[in-house]
């Protein structure tokens, strides 16, 4: 191209005013604001000019520019935090938002969000109240604790307890329980940060009551038991019973605390989880103070619960660090609603426990339904397969959950890795598993309506695997 050609082409690029006046721009101006639309168009025009000047062929027709702007606007206006389809079979998927909220909890959150509330207001006396009171009684009812306190999350709960009860003193922990959870919560690090001194006892696989006894000294404040949430040591192992640890702690006048991680509010058998200790039983066996998450196995919002003996919990209530771990009203309302469901015994109205205990037969039927829907729409090999699901969230490492799913192979768009990547690009991204170069859709974690999303997404994938359908249109609704 000559310089004259290039100049000619540059002049042919429609100007900002022309583009802004076009029909397609109006709904976007209403939706995103004039400045945003201008910024996006400007970005596109600059990119087009740059590509032209570096000699790359460039179609500068108004249609082509419009298409590019629509694509960029759709991208710019798409929420960053988006809903996805969890087809991994991992119920408490930390990367996908852990627990889903019960319908009752969602309604409670909406009420708390839309209206003023008695969050910190004592209605009977017309004076300032405590936000904690809205859930304390329920936690005590459900766990048998004498008192309870909630904070932002379980990591915060552990930190608060260590700072308030063991700062500058020693905490005895078994070497078998010095865990790291999700790469960001490491017991030794939290301990150091709290100012408590970690005293490790026993070995990785075996710790005896005598080890604990030998670890307790003049300056010991606490004996801490940590749930080894995301790993399992098998074979030649030993750990003392809680009641023996409690007896030892109380004989020496130190606090016996347990970081239970997930915090089961019902017998583990009810979820088909053998060998998992529930909070009530831990406390019955002599634990003074227990902490656990609200959004793991409990199935509520992100929150950290501290429950146990009144004297110990009361010692935490006025600690200044509590203010930095404060729970907001939306969370508190969702937690209260979830606890009320537990008190009513409505386990199947709480998504996380409900998904954990779906019978295998039901999963198989769902997988067959999904496979049938796919077979009509997708030119690929579709097969119902048994899969290993998981509780997840560093909650139950012992055994995978037996589940069912659908394997998709021989899809014209590509193999498992390619399909996984393409499904992540969709308007409603689908996160799926893979096995032996087949895409595997685990049905346990699919929500109502997700099957349709999955079928449509797989049906829309083209052999050449371009962008998914729907891009570029104003998805105003
Ligand atoms: C998950 C977990 C934590 C951290 O809880 P968050 O609610 O994520 O802050 C701490 N301790 C144990 C044993 C856990 O399993």
Automatic annotation (TrEMBL):
Q: Pathway involvement?
A: Aminoacyl-tRNA biosynthesis; selenocysteinyl-tRNA(Sec) biosynthesis; selenocysteinyl-tRNA(Sec) from L-seryl-tRNA(Sec) (bacterial route): step 1/1
Quick one: a GO biological-process term for this protein?
selenocysteine incorporation
Any one GO MF term held by the record is: L-seryl-tRNA(Sec) selenium transferase activity
Its subcellular locations are: Cytoplasm
Has the keyword Translocase been applied to this entry? no
Per its record, the protein catalyses: L-seryl-tRNA(Sec) + selenophosphate + H(+) = L-selenocysteinyl-tRNA(Sec) + phosphate
Query: What InterPro entries does the record point to?
Result: PyrdxlP-dep_Trfase, PyrdxlP-dep_Trfase_major, SelA-like, SelA_trans, SelA_trans_N_dom
Q: Does the keyword Protein biosynthesis apply?
A: yes
List the PANTHER family.
L-SERYL-TRNA(SEC) SELENIUM TRANSFERASE
Q: Which family does it belong to?
A: Belongs to the SelA family.
Q: What is this protein called?
A: L-seryl-tRNA(Sec) selenium transferase
Protein's gene: selA
